[in-house]
Design a protein that fits this description.
Layout: E1 2-6, E2 13-17, H1 25-29, E3 38-43, H2 44-59, E4 64-69, H3 78-90, E5 98-103, H4 105-117, E6 124-128, H5 131-137, E7 142-147, E8 150-157, E9 162-165, H6 175-192, H7 194-208, H8 213-233, H9 248-257, H10 265-279, H11 287-298, H12 311-324, E10 331-336, E11 339-343, H13 348-358
Parallel strand pairs: 2-9, 3-4, 3-5, 5-6, 6-9
Antiparallel strand pairs: 1-2, 7-8, 10-11
The chain binds glycine.
Glycine (GLY) binds next to loops.
Length: 360
């Protein structure tokens, strides 16, 4: 079985990656010596496919319950967290119990947040079921919920005890979701791994179709290794961890101006990466590498940006983000494929030019 270790001192944990792992939960969790009851938190879509299987697996470990929330970003709210606290209390949950996040990024963030705060923190395990969650959000301990004033504004760094990645579950995703999630995979190649970049250049369409299990597994594992190493060096994002946000400066603004409804997160990141590649020319990325990078992202064929997007509105969304977080406008850009830098040397005028040239 493929294993990636996230080395964070007493908060260290393993990520197991292999097709069929959902059937092997008791042996995977044995070394954790889980005590108490198990509360699986999932959304209605994922629970309808995998809920019973995962519940049965955990019933071999202890007393297990399945709690579901509606699918979608709106579940990442304080009211949904509150409803889960109430259900946990009504079911007699206590500090020895364990929460399982079974689902995509929304569920991982929400269930992780509930685990981080219920009775000052109880153990939790991530079982991510989307590409995005398997390569990014389930690893590294960022958990949280949204606030009406912005996404992910309430949360914690709270590491899981274990991450179980079963690539077989990706077959129940629609292709749009797979393509969007693969934007984050391409991101890892850009920021850290020219060899992964070449693999993606050669095999992207096969990976989108999830055709070759060994290849898909190896790509997921590589992404987890990169993320684990970045998080090991900078768990709380005092510097380096920000490179994981390549394509996200514009991506977040694109999500905001489209009301978080039109684009999936990965789709916004894909467009953000195309623009960030263009801006990376200022850091020495060659024209040839910009084209190679943009061609790879374009092969994802993600949903296009809505027509008539106003560059000024995107700049405003970025400025709002910056003000709220009391930051300078940091950009993650590339000096070459596989090497990222953090810079604040990009003027709004340069951004506007790129936005105007590339929109649509
Ligand atoms: N998704 C970016 C991070 O975990 O830091």
């Amino acid at each position: 079985m493929n294993r990636v270790h996230v080395d964070l001192g007493e908060n260290s944990y393993d990520i197991f990656i292999q097709p069929g792992l959902l059937q092997e939960i008791p042996s995977l969790t044995r070394s954790l010596s889980l005590q108490g009851s198990i509360f699986i938190i999932s959304d209605t879509r994922v629970a309808s496919i995998y809920g019973e299987l995962v519940l049965k697996q955990f019933q071999k470990v202890g007393k297990a319950h399945l709690l579901t929330v509606p699918e979608g970003e709106s579940s990442k709210s304080i009211s949904m967290a509150d409803s889960l606290y109430t259900q946990l209390l009504q079911l007699g949950a206590n500090r020895k119990d364990t929460i399982i996040a079974l689902g995509g990024g929304v569920i991982g963030d929400l269930a992780g947040f509930v685990a981080a705060t219920f009775m000052r923190g109880i153990p939790f395990i991530q079982i991510p079921t989307t590409v995005l969650a398997q390569v990014d959000s389930s690893v590294g301990g960022k958990v949280g919920i949204n606030h009406p004033m912005g996404k992910n504004l309430i949360g914690a760094f709270y590491q899981p005890r274990l991450v179980i990645i079963d690539p077989d579950v990706l077959h129940s995703l629609d292709e749009r979701q797979v393509r969007a999630g693969l934007a984050e995979v391409i991101k890892y190649a850009f920021i850290s791994d020219p060899v992964l970049f070449q693999t993606l250049e050669t095999h992207l369409e096969s990976i989108i179709r999830l055709e070759e299990k060994t290849l898909v597994n190896a790509v997921l594992e590589k992404c987890c290794q990169i993320k684990a190493e970045v998080v090991r060096q900078d768990e709380k994002e005092s510097g380096l961890r920000a490179i994981l946000n390549f394509g996200h400066t514009l991506g977040h603004a694109l999500e905001a101006v489209t009301g978080y409804r039109t684009l999936y997160h990965g789709e916004a990141v894909a467009h953000g990466m195309i623009m960030a590649l263009e801006l990376s020319k200022t850091c020495g990325l060659s024209n040839q590498e910009v084209s190679r990078g943009q061609n790879l992202v374009r092969r994802l064929e993600v949903a296009p940006l809505p027509e008539n997007l106003d560059p000024a509105a995107i700049l405003e969304a970025m400025a709002r983000d910056k003000k709220r977080l009391k930051n300078v406008q940091n950009w993650i850009l590339l000096t070459s494929i596989g090497n990222a830098v953090i810079t604040n040397n990009i003027s709004p005028k340069q951004t506007k030019t790129v936005l105007t040239d590339l929109r649509g």
